[in-house]
Write a structure and sequence with these properties.
single chain; 192 residues; mainly alpha; 8 helices; 73% helix
């Protein structure tokens, strides 16, 4: 994301903060391609029969962004952080609905691989990850944010560092610690 893009997004967010709904409407076309890439990246990690498409995920994110009343947008980084949280919530809600349709499917044992990729067959893995990630946020909010941005927004180490305004080395260290913590928590939950 280049400097001019960042400046435009930050200006529109500042105007949106002031109640300018035209700024909100101008923001979406500007960030649409970036959001669609993030959504497509995220959905590639989902099961093959996933009914959400990248465009639908972006539109759902937009609808939820438009409902945000008490958010004071700080800048582009804050915006994409909130967007990652919204994508996570939408995908988790969708997975819960899919499991509810299967009635009684329960939560199977979950393995967390190197990239913490959600299973293509079992949305329960996404739910287990979400629950563990919520617990991680209580323990270490920064690690939780890093996982959220890496998994749900599909950001690289460098992009995550930029969004959180920390060094790439810190992101790498916290990413590795968070993955280990999440693997342990998910394994513990699956065995109980």
């Amino acid at each position: 994301m280049d400097l001019e893009f960042s400046k435009q997004v930050s200006e529109l967010l500042a105007n949106w903060n002031k109640g300018d709904l035209e700024a909100r409407e101008a923001l979406m076309p500007l960030v649409y391609d970036e959001l669609r890439k993030l959504a497509a990246s995220q959905l590639r990690r989902e099961r093959n029969d996933h009914t959400l498409q990248p465009t639908a995920l972006v539109h759902e994110v937009y609808l939820r962004l438009a409902e945000q009343k008490n958010v004071h947008w700080q800048d582009k980084s804050h915006f994409f952080g909130v967007t990652a949280q919204l994508m996570r919530r939408i995908l988790v809600d969708h997975a819960r609905g899919h499991l509810a349709d299967k009635r009684g499917s329960g939560l199977p044992k979950v393995a967390l691989n190197e990239a913490i990729v959600m299973s293509r067959e079992q949305p329960a893995e996404l739910l287990a990850l979400d629950e563990s990630l919520t617990r991680l946020a209580d323990t270490d909010p920064q690690q939780s944010k890093i996982v959220e941005l890496r998994i749900f927004a599909g950001l690289t180490i460098e992009q995550t560092a930029e969004v959180l305004r920390i060094s790439p080395a810190t992101v790498k260290r916290d990413w590795n610690l968070a993955k280990a913590w999440l693997m342990r928590e998910i394994s513990r939950a699956a065995s109980s």
